[in-house]
Design brief:
It contains six helices and three strands, in the order αβαβαααβα. By secondary structure, the chain is mainly α. A three-stranded parallel sheet has the order 1-2-3, with helices on both faces. Strand 1, helix 2 and strand 2 form a beta-alpha-beta unit. Helix 1 runs parallel beside helix 2. 24% of the residues are buried.
Length: 171
């Protein structure tokens, strides 16, 4: 896990920087995971490796900014990728389970991650470096069950009675 998830990223950066310096700069986009920003039980080595990618990204961003090289990271959450079917899992059941585990009520798709990478690699992120963009449907914003779903009985007045404080809802 450490060799692939962390050392592989380190070596990728190391070998890309020379060519980027020769061209006057560039953008590196690493891939971590929400496990790197929010720990998961029984995924200790994976979580540690992905947290290492997050901090390696920050360190590299500081080291190479003067060379015009931006270094950022994406931390995907639950994404319905084609590999789901390779394990014999029912794609629809997996997507439904992923959707239940985050505030945005749908599974992440590969295009969600690709669009984040295009942003971080492109000119619109020209002043962004050392950042980890979490693409997870809001999963790391709070534990499952603490967010509302459409038609949820915990909305409105009932929610305000349960918790003191202002609400974004009218009423």
């Amino acid at each position: 896990t450490q060799a692939v998830c962390l050392r592989g990223v380190f070596l990728g950066i190391k070998h890309a920087v020379g060519a980027m310096r020769a061209r006057g700069g560039g953008a590196i986009v690493n891939t971590a995971s929400i496990a790197g920003v929010w720990g998961y039980p029984m995924l200790h080595a994976y979580s540690a490796a992905k947290a290492g990618v997050v901090n390696l990204t920050r360190s590299a961003a500081l080291e190479f900014a003067a060379d015009g090289i931006r270094v950022n990271c994406i931390a995907p959450g639950g994404v319905a990728t084609p590999i789901v079917g390779a394990f014999g899992a029912n794609k629809e059941a997996v997507e439904a389970a992923l959707a239940r585990g985050q505030p945005v009520p749908r599974a992440g798709q590969p295009d969600d991650i690709a669009h984040a990478a295009l942003y971080l690699a492109g000119p619109h992120a020209g002043f962004v470096t050392g950042h980890t963009l979490v693409v997870d449907g809001g999963a790391v914003s709070g534990p499952a069950g603490t967010y509302r779903r459409p038609g949820d009985a915990r909305s409105g007045a009932a929610q305000r009675q349960r918790f003191a404080g202002p609400s974004f809802e009218q009423g």
